[in-house]
Design brief:
The structure is a single chain. By secondary structure, this protein is of the alpha/beta class. It has one domain (about 1-210): 3-Layer(aba) Sandwich (Rossmann fold), CATH 3.40.50. It has eight helices and five strands. It has helices at about 15-25, 40-50, 60-85, 95-105, 110-120, 135-150, 165-180, 195-210, and strands at about 1-5, 30-35, 90, 130-135, 185-190. A five-stranded parallel beta sheet has the order 2-3-1-4-5, sandwiched between helices. It is globular, with a radius of gyration of 16 Å. Bound molecules: thymidine-5'-phosphate.
């Protein structure tokens, strides 16, 4: 099983992943937590290029292909073997981030992104995707607070440096995706207290696991 979390910067994905992990732990379910970009050693190197605030001249197509390269390595080296061994994979961002950031927001043709996805994914798709929906003004404030207090790396701020309009487009992109695939996406209001957000996510997860029994 593959579960993915998506959302703008500062939407609280890391906290919610911890809640999901404790839930699986409680029920003795085997899981791993991973992320994109940077879920493998090679991916970490790609991540540092992608998020380096100094790389302002990176071409949108270079950006797209680096995310795709990170994903191929991640799927082949980690995600597929883990799913095959029966583990639940919880992934912080996946290909929906590419559709939304590089497609909707940077303006790369969505059909080209879908073509690239097909090549990279070879049929792999998340079983469920949680979108942590948040007003970007709040998300960016939270993200910069974490960067300034050192809990998030200053060397990974290329996207946080983008204008508010960029992040508004990302948010709208996610909501548009959720409307297109209502069976896979669960949109959760991330402006609530994190414990409440976690409760909503676990409620849904519990129902889905029950159905699979
Ligand atoms: P994060 O690990 O803090 O979420 O940062 C990853 C950044 O990379 C985030 O700003 C979203 C961006 N991103 C894309 O633009 N495209 C992608 O395909 C992925 C996975 C992430």
């Amino acid at each position: 099983m593959l579960i993915t979390l998506e959302g703008i910067e500062g939407s609280g994905k890391t906290t919610q992943i911890d809640y999901i992990a404790s839930y699986f732990q409680k029920f003795g379910l085997d899981y791993i937590i991973t992320k994109e970009p940077g879920g493998t050693v090679i991916g970490e190197k790609i991540r540092s290029i992608l998020l380096d605030p100094g790389n302002i001249n990176i071409h949108p197509m270079t950006e797209l292909l680096l995310y795709a390269a990170d994903r191929v390595q991640h799927i082949k080296e980690l995600i597929n073997p883990m799913i095959e061994s029966g583990k639940i994979v919880i992934c912080d961002r996946f290909y929906d981030s590419t559709t939304v950031y590089q497609g909707f927001t940077r303006g790369i043709d969505i059909s080209l992104i879908q073509q690239l996805n097909r090549l990279v994914l070879e049929g792999l798709a998340p079983d469920m995707t949680f979108i942590l929906d948040l007003n970007p003004e709040i998300g960016l404030k939270r993200a910069w607070k974490q960067i300034n207090d050192g809990s998030r790396s200053e060397s990974e701020t290329r996207f946080e440096n983008e204008k508010l309009q960029f992040h508004e487009s990302v948010r709208n992109g996610y909501l548009a995706l959720a409307r297109q695939e209502p069976d896979r996406f669960v949109v959760v209001d991330a402006s609530m207290d994190p414990v409440k957000v976690g409760e909503k996510i676990l409620e849904h997860l519990g129902r889905c696991l029950e159905k699979q029994k």
